[in-house]
Amino acid sequence: MNKLLTIAIPTFNRSELLNKQLAWLAEVVKRFESDCEIFISNNCSTNNTHEVIKNCQETLSNIKLKYNRNSQDARLIKIFLIACKQRQANLALA
Which of 25, 33, 35, 74 could form a cystine bridge with 4, CB 3.0-4.6 A? Predict the structure, then answer.
């Protein structure tokens, strides 16, 4: 089923900011979780980004959350293109 909105979030060693962003998004999309998806593209982070995402998957259990970890450094445009290819919505925000 196509989603109404895909939110693409590229990240690199910003686990604290990512955690705050995902908490904010959980509040913002409360009434239309089934119409949203979040795609997080992790650009080889060396901090606890993976753990933040794992914890947020429980908090955002009503929202389709996709996660990709690049095995090597990718430029922002490449991360955005990866997110666009993964989306299932008609509209993507990055």
Answer: 35
